[in-house]
Amino acid sequence: MGPSNISKKTFLIDELRKQAEGKAASPQNTSPNEAQIRSSIDSLLWQIYGWMEEVARYLDTLHPPVAHEFRLGNVLTFGALTLSDSFASYRRQRFEDQDLLEYIEFFYRLKAPNNTIIRVQSSSADEIETRMRVAGLSFEVSPQINEWKKVHAVQFDVKPEIKSNIRFEPDYIQHKIGIRLANVDRFDAIYLVFPPSQLDEDALEDLVRLVLGEKNTFMSRAPWQTHWRPTKPAIHSYRPSPRYLG
Predict the structure, then answer these.
(1) DSSP labels, 65-109
(2) Are 244 and 107 in contact (CB under 8 A)?
(3) What is the pTM of this model?
């Protein structure tokens, strides 16, 4: 009689456990779990923000050299760069009933020693101007007039600086964090998309070493994506930080 009763009790416990696990996984109980996941991603982003803000202060004091060389086709090259004007900022959003970070940004400038002056044929000037604007370069344009009063060439006086930024964008629905690198090691913008668990301090150190041109290990930590956008909730609102309105 004893063993039989124990067997029945064990069977009952197993059934109750399965029912409880099934209820925990049912749709009506997913929202609290999702809210907790969103909170953990938000908490990680605040840690990243604090880390990047501290790094930005140090870099803005040191103005370190940057080993990257930036080329715009065969017409323009920036080298002997130094980093300056670095700072970190953020923007908040309302996601359902939670107040979460929408993104973090790290801004800085790469400065070259002198202005660069280039002259191109008028036939290619529009293309060159477009490429420089896409790269975020500042410049002045001077058409060159020939003896027949026609534009035969165009001169660009290019300001010796590159505007760079790194943006951390969380996807609270897919549980990912995309990092957009704009003018970090080249004239281009790409995304690397990470699971939050992979964005530890080692990864952030690799990111800063990439910025400085010391090594490019960060670029192999996640696949590259040319276009990536985080999934947005159906209804959300924005809350800019006091330090940055954009």
Answers:
(1) EE---EEETTTEEE-SEEEEEEEEEEEEEEETTEEEEEEEEEEEE
(2) no
(3) 0.79
